[in-house]
Amino acid sequence: MPELDVIHENKDYIVVNKAAGLISEKSPYEAVTVETQVFNHLLKSNRKPYIGIIHRLDRVTSGVLILAKKKSILVEFNTLFSSRKVQKTYLAIVKNKPANNKGNLVNFLIKNNKEKKAGIVQSKSKDSLNCMLSYQVIGKNNFGYLLEIKPKTGRFHQIRAQLANIGLPIIGDEKYGSDQEYLPLSICLHAWKLAFEVSGSKESQTFEAPLPNNDFWTFKSI
User: Fold this and answer.
1) Which of 25, 38, 78, 184 is deepest in the core (most CB within 10 A)?
2) Is the pLDDT of residue 117 over 90?
3) CB within 8 A of 160, min separation 6: which ones?
């Protein structure tokens, strides 16, 4: 398993570059998770560390993940996320060329708990949730096209489902129709940047996760 990659740490929270293949929270079924990695890291300086799970990334997704080191900080971040004062920026690589170099996707999404998958439906229903994102093509290589994505909502698998719905499944994402192989337990989706307003001020704090270190992610534009 990859070692913990710490982007930033202070007395209130720790920011890590989550490795694809790991789930975010500890689980009785998983020997290593991001939470257990962070716990072992914090044990070096605190015999009883507190870890608050602020948000999560899918197992197959890499990138910026913030964990609280105090309960009060967890509450603060929960408020920021619920009030949509956090801007996430993702990068995804798709095999097919988008019809437009940039655009907005607005859909209705239904979560299929049995298949652990999201589906896009044409009209609103009692089971559907609206989902929105913007995308822009920012690079190209021999594998495909690099998209910068900014979700406006935080729905289950929304980036994966919305892109697949317009014929752009993320490379390696067999669940949503990709026919191109990538690394095990991983797809070409990376939580690149996370920005939020610092509590008590109008200043914005941004954290950026280095891209996965393989040929798929080699682009001249970045």
Assistant:
1) 38
2) yes
3) 118, 169, 170, 173, 175, 176, 187, 189
pTM of the model: 0.93
The torsion angles phi and psi of 128, rounded to 5 degrees, stand at: -100, 155
Residue 222: pLDDT band with limits 50, 70, 90: low
| Euclidean distance between CA atoms 106 and 95, whole angstroms | 22
Q: Annotate 119-173 with three-state secondary structure.
A: EEECCCCCCCEEEEEEEEEEEECCCCEEEEEEECCCCCCHHHHHHHHCCCCECCC
Neighbouring C-alpha atoms within 13 Å toward the C-beta of 12:
9
Q: How confident is the model at residue 221 (pLDDT cuts 50, 70, 90)?
A: low
- CA gap 181, 32 in Å, rounded: 25
Six token digits for residue 80: 């920021």
C-alpha 155, offset from chain centre: 11
CB 118 within 8 A of CB 111: yes
